[in-house]
């Protein structure tokens, strides 16, 4: 099972990207919002596959209330993934299932493709 980080590594209003399959580009992001961790694919629903951030870990708006796609400025609710303003209205980010262990370690709930390759 793929470890991402420890839950305490992300403070409130902080987001971080991860590339568990080693593709060279962060495939998902974790964000702590209202005390909870949420994981989303780093892919904007406006133009499928478009990465959200313009530089590493720059996923949030300046007020840290929304995840922002910097291509065309769509804003997403960090808890639900729904687009709340901008070019992707009516769509949502894709959730990534995570698991927080008793010791606080955060893992992907499902193996990465590399882990399932024989
Ligand atoms: S690609 Fe994300 S808002 Fe257009």
TrEMBL record:
SUPFAM superfamilies on file = ISP domain
InterPro entries hit by this protein: Rieske_2Fe-2S, Rieske_2Fe-2S_sf
Domain Rieske, by residue range, is 2-106
Does this UniProt record's set of keywords contain Iron? yes
UniProt keyword terms in alphabetical order: 2Fe-2S, Iron, Iron-sulfur, Metal-binding
Pfam families given in the database record? Rieske
Question: Can you name this protein?
Answer: Rieske (2Fe-2S) protein
């Amino acid at each position: 099972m793929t470890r991402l980080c420890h839950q305490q590594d992300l403070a409130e209003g902080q987001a971080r990207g991860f590339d568990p399959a080693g593709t060279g580009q962060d495939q998902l992001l974790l964000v702590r919002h209202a005390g909870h961790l949420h994981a989303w694919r780093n892919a904007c629903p406006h133009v499928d596959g478009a990465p959200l951030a313009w530089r590493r870990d720059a996923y949030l708006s300046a007020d840290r209330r929304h995840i922002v796609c910097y291509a065309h400025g769509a804003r997403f609710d960090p808890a639900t993934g729904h687009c709340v303003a901008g070019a992707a209205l009516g769509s949502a980010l894709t959730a990534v299932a995570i698991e927080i262990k008793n010791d606080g370690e955060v893992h992907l709930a499902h193996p990465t493709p590399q882990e399932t390759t024989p």
